[in-house]
């Protein structure tokens, strides 16, 4: 019995502690009420917080509690779908969650309101993510109170103004990860000094922040723990300052999309721990640096979109760990066999838009290769039909390449059984080879080739195909009905395809059939397409009316039916396409008034109704007022009102006068027809009776006998009536 006493005492003590702390079987009551009030302040259109009922808030979705104290310590309401966001947050009630150490509201939309200042009161926060949450305004200085914060993500929200709240970020002495991508730093002149005060920061992401200038010097570089520095897309106009190369702990350096003009800085070799280097689009010039081969830990190198010239040095073959290499859009020439051809770990190789020579032998050692872009080069990879590559590609781009002595489908592609994306645009291919394509293919681009005739039925076997581009060929048969039904992108423009517009692709989002020979009416079944579709049927032979059902495509962004033979009125239902940005109905035979419903299209930025037979006043509401170019209504002589110079008032008065004259003329015609009808009726009635009596003797005898009998009866009735009247007298 005595041995059980300590256990009983411990159990009793925990029970008393639980009572004092207010812990029940669920979360604390004050915190549960705070969460309920917080929920009431949210607009939750998709009812994502439907689980927030009952007493135990620790079991609610997105809520995490401490196993020891029962306090709410985590609130994870991130919206990864970006389709069902919380909105209109009056969120101050969450202030009562005093033990909160993790808060994630990313991906929602809080109506461009400021980041709430009370977030600075959560002194225990270690993780705060407000990325893409729709906040606006200055970053509040109160966030500087979060001395235990380790992860801060404010990306895609507001702006940092250190003139108003200078130095707040330097107070976050525990910070490890900082992401302020797309947060404007226009008025943050001291951003580098503030960041340099963070002793433990490991990752800094400031993509597209309008940094403007690159501070040239720092009195002391305090980034001793920094492993990632991402300053892409800031248009910094200077060379890379020396202090960057003194951060020897750097593993990932991303400076692409800046104006770092000049020669390639050899100081990069100081960064011996570097695993990824991005200097793409930085206006670097000169020869490809030979010393790059000394950065032995590199796994990713992006030098694309520069002006590097000369050959690729053999020393690059020393980068045995390199997996991703992008040298596209430069002025490189020569072969790659001695350098790039030795990179056995290479997974992704991008050499597009250079003057490089590449043959099958140059790829013989690249056994790990999965993504290859060699477009716009002098390539010959079709010398032998029996070549079997050592790799299995997922994506291949060979646009504008010489793929062999005679342009035809590369036979070695048959061996690529995992291929998902294939681009062979402008390769001069003439033969139909769809039976040789792997069934795994999802994206196929054979545009600007010399394919002719009809598409073979074997194309229907590509059941995984999502995007098909056969534009600008010589296809001239009727549209096939056996194409894969899962297509989302179909581009067949600039061919000679005939038949009716297809309606059997329920998942289609982009439909390009312009410059063909399609004919017939637009079927209402076209509305079976997806709700965020782009439709281009211009320059065909379509006729009939535009179906009213087209307005059911509420998510349609672009509609081009120009250069056809469509008639009738513009359907008012087009006004229901609230997402419409482009509408082109020009060069048809449409008539009637422009529906005023078009004024409700708030996203419309391109409109063309020229060269039809439209009439009446041009609607002048909302978005339509922004279209001041009169050419979008040209070729419709009966339209009036701004932006046209034709005055609708005079036009309407003239129309009223013409209508009055027309009514007067119509009245005179009606009177003339009345008298004419009476005269004709009398003549026809007279001769119908009298003519019969003159021509038929039997009719004449009967007629006069009937008249005599009638007069005799009338005479007798009159005599009898007079006699009765006399008796009464």
Q: Can you offer a commentary on this structure?
A:
The protein is α/β, with parallel strands linked by helices. Among the domains are: 648-694; 696-729. The protein has five helices and 41 strands. The strands form five sheets. It has a 24-stranded mixed beta sheet, with no helix packed on it. Strands 30-32-34-36-38-40-41 form a seven-stranded parallel beta sheet, with no helix packed on it. Helix 4 packs across helix 5 (697-728). The radius of gyration is 41 Å and the shape is globular. The N and C termini lie far apart (145 Å). One of its GO terms (molecular function) is kinase activity. Its main location: membrane. This is LRR receptor-like serine threonine-protein kinase. It is a single-pass type I membrane protein. InterPro entries: Leu-rich_rpt, Leu-rich_rpt_4, Leu-rich_rpt_typical-subtyp, LRR_dom_sf, LRR_N_plant-typ, LRR_R13L4/SHOC2-like, RLP23-like.
